[in-house]
């Protein structure tokens, strides 16, 4: 499942942040099950073509948030996320994504009204049974490959 | 950032001079537990630096510490057993030896020689050790030497252009083996390379080295996401002044009606441009070789006019 993480190497957004946002979403949404083992820092770095410094930072941050636990000598696992926390986290990641979208809009001098119109439009498009970009493949692929 | 707190290699004020080349003064700490790539043009002093670390050459000034041992303190043999060194060029004097004989020799000298691991490496690299070293192809010789360098599971690997002569398949095998070698988290690789893709795949830190001097040590991911270049259409007069205050400005110049501005702080630069309503006609993240070119250029002009006015 963690293999669905995708990086944009052309963005000025730091890699650790890109990875953190996606990994957090995978855990909070329950797409990575409680107890699922994450790859070692070096393995994850190799897979994502980034440095262990970046992955270490991501793991440290998510561990501090209580989303993952590292057991010395065994590995890093997805922690139990209690339902209340899950719902809070659930909205947090959406709110963060919206803040980023707004920031992207500000960069090209969008007005509030323009942003609202874009939001409404995206919402309508989303309802026309299209999966949102960045949400990965069809649901049947989303379980079973947590490593 | 190092795991043990102690750097794997520490150079302090190291100078080494030859009639045609001056190395240093070098101050460098190679963090333990990471892969550090030394990147620089030919004859920037990379191989000499390796040879100094191995006590194969004596510095004129300064001190060198490797794996906690001060070079020149008389513990050379013990120290060398903990290091794996792959020189840029294979040794020429042993071309009549068969691979297996040379491996036998290494087994004798390295108490930590791991024969099953050596056999694994030979198999992964598809090397035929019964051949004489002189009759191996360049690529096979390189793979064989890499296997010899790794087989005693050294704490520190010094690799000087390891992939020269390797085909793309062997190259991938090497990258994979080196990643696995680092898996325990306690080992250190220092690699000198020209190959951008190698740095991207392997390195945690990058050291830029030019003309015998270290231009700086950078965290790779941070560097690759924070160095961007922007293009603006129009004349120099129109843009150069307006852009001279851009955060992280590392190069600014005009060629043929296109102004190019390079920043080492892309996020700040983007915000700065947006706040001024300056819209670049194009922008992209920079590759390592482009960053190196900017640093080399800046090194040439630094002291004359600062960073401003550096040509692209």
Chart the SSEs and their pairings.
The complex is a heterodimer of chains A (147) and B (312).
Chain A: H1 15-28, E1 37-38, H2 41-48, H3 52-64, E2 68-71, E3 75-78, H4 83-107, H5 112-127
Antiparallel strand pairs in A: 1-3, 2-3
Helix pairs in contact in A: 1-3, 1-4, 2-3
Chain B: E1 9-18, E2 21-30, E3 35-39, H1 46-53, E4 61-66, E5 69-70, H2 76-81, E6 83-86, H3 99-109, H4 115-124, H5 138-150, E7 156-160, H6 168-182, E8 188-192, H7 196-202, E9 205-210, E10 213-219, H8 220-226, E11 228-233, H9 236-243, E12 249-255, E13 258-263, H10 266-275, E14 282-285, H11 288-301
Parallel strand pairs in B: 3-8, 3-9, 6-7, 7-8
Antiparallel strand pairs in B: 1-2, 1-4, 4-5, 9-10, 11-13, 11-14, 12-13
Explain what you see.
- The complex is a heterodimer of chains A (147) and B (312).
- Chain A has helices spanning 15-28, 41-48, 52-64, 83-107, 112-127, and strands at residues 37-38, 68-71, 75-78.
- Chain A has a three-stranded antiparallel sheet with strand order 1-3-2.
- By secondary structure, chain A is mostly helical.
- Chain A has five helices and three strands.
- Chain B has eleven helices and 14 strands.
- In chain B, the strands form three sheets. Chain B has a six-stranded mixed sheet, with helices on both faces. Chain B has a four-stranded antiparallel sheet with strand order 2-1-4-5, with helices on one face.
- In chain B, a hairpin with a 2-residue loop joins strand 12 (249-255) and strand 13 (258-263).
- The model of chain B is unreliable at 303-312 (pLDDT under 50).
- Classes of the chains: A mainly alpha (147), B alpha/beta (312).
- Chain A binds chain B through residues 9-16, 40-43, 46, 49-54, 106-109, and chain B through 1, 34-35, 179, 182-183, 185, 200-201, 203-205, 219-222, 224-226, 228, 266-267, 270, 274, 277, 284-285.
